[in-house]
């Protein structure tokens, strides 16, 4: 069949059809409605369904899925949302429904009339939900009441009733929600009273959770107790709690982040800076992203900066440019600059300027300890600049109180190896180590110690080497085979069976 050539009109018609198809597809994409977020009432109802599914199938992962939405959901709660959710989740004559609604203010008259009008069409009443749904809704009501200072006392009362009901039910399927309840109890006492008042309740609940192997509640309660002790600076009791309890390994990253943060604060107060730095780094790694939990992210980095300075290290400058940390670490950045330059006057000025901020962060006592580090840095800079300097000049440059203090501080710096030098007490000056003979006996002794250390390390490495078993037998067998081959070769040479060309190049 012969090829048919297309006319220009046909080509134009095909192009127009393609253009129309593309435009129709674009219009269809534009007409597709965007998925709107669920309303809070719908989300609460779906969460209640997931909790019932978790109880029916004995799968706690559905409950964990519900609790992951708690932080975002509680920001969208109000009286009408909670009231409507309770009305739709529970049947009309439910006693639990009446109890839950009693914690909320009554609905306005307009809403009541609208509800009456909406009930003209009969509908099948929903079944009574499981008790876990009631505890979950109580948790939402507690967080809602904590938004207003007028309802703090009411939130504490509701928290007490919720704890009593939760302990009376004693259901293992309620354990994930119970861990969140304990956090809400702590928040209620923090806003409406004293955290110390809830400590006996936490201790009793922690013992019960450890006996029942309830890891989630146990992890939450240990963090609640540590926060209570640290809040009142009871570091000895906090250290005893850590030594007498075992933090569950199956706890989530948020609980582990809080635990490492509290351990880091305890170790820093106890002068164990290396362990404190390790725990704080673990807290930073396990913490949620900076934009999700900015308060915790800032608190951990504030303490971490101070601990690094106490260890003798200088934090990275890029840390202070982080968008979440830039404003929060302004005072700490000035402290870092004072420590790095060894300026005691700048350090004292910065400490007085941001004292209120440091006391609110509970880092003031740790920052005061940095005074010795600032002085040591200043002395190191003076030792590099001067071969000989009087103690009086050291007092003036470092803003010390007296020459006796300067002599004591310089002597301690020499003993700790911060600087190399000696104090001439009779003449009242410090001679730096740069004037000593570089090729003196002290240098040879130092090299001798290094050589001895290397030789000892070599000897220990040789002693620690391990060899495969019976490896020497293989070498003996190979040697015996070589000797036998040599004997056979010599015998053949004597008999004249081999020529020089047959023996090869080795012979």
Q: Classify the beta-strand content into a percent band.
A: under 5%
On the 0 to 100 scale, the average pLDDT is 78
What is the strand tally? 3
Give the strand order, joined by hyphens, for the main sheet. Answer: 1-3-2
What's the overall geometry? flat
Q: What is the ordering of alpha helices and beta strands?
A: HHHHHHHHHHHHHHHHHHHHHEHHEEHHH
Span between termini: 85 Å
- How many helices in DSSP terms? 26
Query: Rounded to an integer, what's the Rg over CA atoms?
Result: 38 Å
Oligomer: single chain
Describe the main β-sheet briefly. Answer: 3 strands, antiparallel
Low-confidence stretches: 28-33, 113-122
User: How much helical structure, as a percent, in the residues?
Assistant: 55-70%
Secondary structural class:
mainly alpha
Biased composition (Acidic residues): 495-507
Family: Belongs to the proteasome subunit S3 family.
GO molecular function, one term: enzyme regulator activity
Domain PCI: 257-437
Structure description:
With 507 residues, this protein is mainly alpha-helical. Among the domains are: 39-105 and 130-193, no CATH class; 386-432, no CATH class. It is 68% helix and 2% strand. The protein has 26 helices and 3 strands. The chain has helices at 8-31, 40-57, 60-68, 70-73, 79-89, 95-101, 109-118, 131-145, 152-169, 175-192, 199-212, 215-231, 235-244, 253-269, 273-286, 294-310, 330-341, 344-353, 355-360, 364-368, 370-385, 391-398, 403-415, 441-463, 471-495, 500-503, and strands at residues 388-390, 421-424, 429-432. It has a 3-stranded antiparallel sheet. A hairpin with a 4-residue loop joins β2 (421-424) and β3. α14 packs antiparallel against α15 and α15 runs antiparallel to α16. Residues 257-437 form the PCI domain. GO terms for molecular function: enzyme regulator activity. It comes from Armillaria gallica (Bulbous honey fungus). One of its GO terms (biological process) is ubiquitin-dependent protein catabolic process. Residues 1-45, 478-507 are annotated as: Disordered.
């Amino acid at each position: 069949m012969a090829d048919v050539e297309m006319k220009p009109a046909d080509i134009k018609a095909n192009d127009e059809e393609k253009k129309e198809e593309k435009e129709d597809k674009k219009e269809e994409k534009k007409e597709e409605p965007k998925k709107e977020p669920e309303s809070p009432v719908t989300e609460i109802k779906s969460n209640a369904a997931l909790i019932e599914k978790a109880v029916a199938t004995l799968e706690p992962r559905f409950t964990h899925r519900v609790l992951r939405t708690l932080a975002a959901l509680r920001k969208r709660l109000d009286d009408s949302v909670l009231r409507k959710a309770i009305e739709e989740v529970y049947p009309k004559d439910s006693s639990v429904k009446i109890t839950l609604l009693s914690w909320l203010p009554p609905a306005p008259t307009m809403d009541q009339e609208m509800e009456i009008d909406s009930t003209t069409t009969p509908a099948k009443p929903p079944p009574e939900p499981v008790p876990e749904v009631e505890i979950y809704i109580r948790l939402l009501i507690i967080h809602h009441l904590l938004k207003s200072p007028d309802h703090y006392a009411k939130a504490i009362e509701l928290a007490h009733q919720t704890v009593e009901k939760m302990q009376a039910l004693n259901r293992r399927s309620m354990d994930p929600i119970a861990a969140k309840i304990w956090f809400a109890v702590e928040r209620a006492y923090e806003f409406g009273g004293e955290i110390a008042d809830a400590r006996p309740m936490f201790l009793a609940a922690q013992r019960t959770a450890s006996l029942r192997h309830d890891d989630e509640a146990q992890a939450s309660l240990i963090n609640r107790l540590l926060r209570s002790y640290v809040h009142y600076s009871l570091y000895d009791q906090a250290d005893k709690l850590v030594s007498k309890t075992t933090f569950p390994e199956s706890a989530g990253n948020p609980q582990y982040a809080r635990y490492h943060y509290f351990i880091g604060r305890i170790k820093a107060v106890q002068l164990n800076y290396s362990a404190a730095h390790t725990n704080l780094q673990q807290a930073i790694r396990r913490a949620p992203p900076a934009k999700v939990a900015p308060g915790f992210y800032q608190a951990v980095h504030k303490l971490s900066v101070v601990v690094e300075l106490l260890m003798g290290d200088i934090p990275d400058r890029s840390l202070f440019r982080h968008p979440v940390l830039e404003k929060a670490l302004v005072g700490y950045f000035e402290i870092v600059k004072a420590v790095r330059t060894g300026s005691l006057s700048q350090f004292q000025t910065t400490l007085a300027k941001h004292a209120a901020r440091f006391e609110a962060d509970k880092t003031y006592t740790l920052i005061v300890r940095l005074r010795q580090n600032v002085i040591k840095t200043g002395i190191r800079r003076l030792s590099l600049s001067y071969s000989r300097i009087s103690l009086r000049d050291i007092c003036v440059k470092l803003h010390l109180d007296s020459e006796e203090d300067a002599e004591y501080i310089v002597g301690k710096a020499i003993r700790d190896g911060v600087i190399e030098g000696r104090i001439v007490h009779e003449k009242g000056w410090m001679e730096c180590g740069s004037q000593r003979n570089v090729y003196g006996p002290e240098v040879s002794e130092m090299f001798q110690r290094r050589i001895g250390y290397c030789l000892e390390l070599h000897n220990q490495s040789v002693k620690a080497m391990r060899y495969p078993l019976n490896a020497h037998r293989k070498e003996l067998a190979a040697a015996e085979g070589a000797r036998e081959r040599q004997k056979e070769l010599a015998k053949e040479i004597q008999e004249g069976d081999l020529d020089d060309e047959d023996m090869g190049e080795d012979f």
